[in-house]
Design brief:
Blueprint: H1 2-34, H2 37-60
């Protein structure tokens, strides 16, 4: 029974990731036509760097949900 739940959970997670990727790819296609590519690249790179630093900080400072 437990293995059935784990298999289904993985399928749902992969499906959600795929759906999110398709949605944001379509949004990006429309944004590239309306906004300059350099601006989009600058914003995307800045946000990527910010979130990578945040994730690195979580691992560096060993942030856990334990009180």
């Amino acid at each position: 029974m437990l293995s059935k739940i784990n298999n289904n959970t993985g399928f749902v997670a992969r499906s959600l990731v795929g759906i999110v990727q398709v949605i944001f790819t379509l949004i990006a296609v429309f944004l590239i036509d309306r906004v300059e590519r350099k601006k989009l690249m600058a914003v995307g790179s800045s946000l990527t760097a910010l979130f990578m630093l945040l994730i690195g900080g979580v691992f560096f400072f060993d942030v856990t949900s334990d009180s």
